[in-house]
Structures are given as structure tokens and as C-alpha cells.
Amino acid sequence: MGHKILVLTPDLRVPGGVSNYYEALGLHSNDGVDYFFVSNDKKEYLGSFFWRLIKNYYLFINILIKKDINLVHINPSLNFKSYLRDSLFLMIAHFFNKKTLVFFHGWSDEFENKIQKRYIYKLIFSKSFGRCKHIIVLSNYFKEKLISLGCDPKKTKFWIESTVADTSFLEGFSIEDKLIDYRKSDKIKVLFLSRIVKEKGVFIALEAFESLQKEIKDKQLELIIAGDGSALEEAKEMVKTRNISNVTFTGYIKGDKKKKILHDAHIFLFPTYYGEGMPTNILEAMLYGMPIVSRYNAGIADAVNHGDNGLLTDSKDSEEFAEMLMSYLSDDDHYDKTVRLNHKKALENFSSEIVKQRILNIYNNITTEGRTKNISV
What are the b/e assignments for 246-277, b being 16+ CB within 10 Å? Predict the structure, then answer.
């Protein structure tokens, strides 16, 4: 490839959108692309956290000194922890006169307001992210927000990208078989796949499913809650206390277990109001043939067109989500059309191979400064 790219990412063993993204893409399998882990999967106390952070900065500086790195690719979310950690990585890269690429994955509106209002946060932005000439965002919505924070659109090149739908589970998958299974199945499976925190909408999902079961008498339903997180025990207690039937908690899933659930689930329910970028779970659900029932939140509407390949709302009312689920369960033609469209759209736009090549093309654009040398998967 000829160029050296250093990608800063969480350890791939850490559950989360960014680590899942870079595990699915496998960019480090390409010559010249290396991953640098900014976090690990071990439980840390405050002292060990700061020691690891200092050690990481030291290792990062050492790499920049000893290796001919052509591009440093940093992957922050706009929240307090990531902002402070990654702004320093970015300033170090600028100090060593390295080309940089920033890819914003998550976004907290609350923290954005703090940057706007507090001088120190604004100063940090101007010395780090505001100086970056190459930025990837997950929708134009985030591009405009970065410009309002201080990025100069005349000096900064923006790319609109997506997260990725992992194609490694496609072996043995058939969209036609899935539709046949839906029609013949004695149990319709609704999937909630996410980190289990309140803001991801897990309690709204449970209430919506509870309401849906009262309306649907001719079909058996199951809600699969897949994932782990701080609200998991509270969600289990809610199911027990309210006696909500046919709810399955799987915990964190990966590998064959995740493959089976993606193959078997019929509808994806995700009432998130979290500070998302473009949730990977949305794209994966599309790829594996599920209509999307979610909210107009962050970049979701860039992948899901209301009434076309899913249903979206601004509401957090569980009854509205129950009604949207019902609209698919009561209209087989609408369901079939959405399933086929989502699979095709995800395969052509969000698959691992397609997204990987787009990212490599961005690397090529930056490192060769317009020359015609290409990087291929």
C-alpha cells in the first residue's frame, strides 16, 4: 500500500459500537494499517485508568517518533471522557505534523452545549478537532453541528459515512427463507439488540410489547432483549413485577449465538433517545431482513425512510411503538416489501466489504493528496 495508517480504536474485545465497527471492517488486515487500542476490556479503578492513559500517550508518541506514520485516524464520540482523551491524542499528532482524520461515532447534545458555553472546552476544541482538515461524520446533521462548534468548512473536508452491517453472519442466510419462516412460524420474534441502558429505550420497548400482546390474539409473540448494561437487572425486574410474558433476555451475544438471533428475528424494535451516531444494530437488522421500528434520533433517518423501509417517530410513547409494530403484523404485503428492501439496501450500501473500501478510499484520498494510487480491499 505504501502508506502507514494508525487507527485509534477501543480494544476489539470491548463491547460497543466503535469496537464492533473496526472488528467487522478488519482494516488492520491490510498492509500498512495498524490498530492502536485506546481502551481495554479490563475492570479499572481510577488510579489504573490514569496510569493506562499516561502509558498509552507514551506509546503513541513513541510510535509517531519511530515509525513513518502518514495518517492518524482517531475515533471519538462527543462526550466528556472521549473528548478529553482524544483531543490530546489529536494535539500530539498535530505536534508531530501528522495528517489526521477524525471520525465522530457518537454525539451527546448535552456535552455539545457545554462546549458552546464553557471557554475551556471551546479552547480545547479549537486546538484539536477544530484544526483537523479531514472529518468523517454519520450525517449532515453532525457536519453542521461541528461547523457551529468552530470547524471551518472552507478548510475542512467532510465525508458522510455510515457504520457497518457485519456480513460475517450471511452464510446460510436467505431472504426468501426468512419470509417463508415468518409466514409459517408459530411465534413472531421482536428483537431489541443493544447495550441495555434506559436511554436506548429498553423500558419503552417492554411497555410496547406488553401492549402489543394485549392486542394480538391470533399470533404468539416473543420479545428478545439481547445485550448487557447497567439497566439489565431493572429491566428483568420490570418483566417480573408486571408479569410480562414471552420476554427472553440473552445477555451480550456474539458469534454463533448472534448469528442465530439475527437469522431468526422478524422485526427490530429500537426506541432509542440516546446520543447515537448511526447505530450499527439498525444496519445489521436491515441486512438480516427486519423492518425497523425506531425514532428520529441522530443519524437513524439517514438509513431508515419512514414508511419505506421502516417506521419512525419523534415520540417516546410506548403505545405509538405498539401501533407501529402492529402495522407490520397486520399487513403481510407491507412486511414482505420492507424485508426485501432492507436486505438489498444494507447489502449494497452498508455491508462490511462496501464500507471498508469506502474508508480505504478516504485514506487514499488523504495520503496521496489527489494522486491516483488506489488502496484495495
Answer: ebebeeebeeeebbebbbbbbbbbbbbebbbb
pLDDT tens-digit profile of 278-307?
A: 889 999 999 999 999 999 998 899 899 999
Tell me the domains of the chain and their CATH numbers.
5-164+351-368 (3.40.50.2000), 167-349 (3.40.50.2000)
pTM for this entry: 0.83
Cα angle 313, 316, 318; round to 5: 100
Tens digit of each residue's pLDDT (9 = 90 or more) over 168-208: 999 999 999 999 999 998 899 999 999 999 999 999 999 99
The CA distance from 107 to 104, in Å, is 8
Distances in Å between the Cα of 364 and the Cα atoms of 15, 107, 192, 224, 288 are 29, 27, 37, 42, 31
Helix (H, G, I), strand (E, B) or coil at 2: coil
Please check whether residue 40 is in contact with residue 69, taking contact to mean a CB–CB distance below 8 angstroms.
no
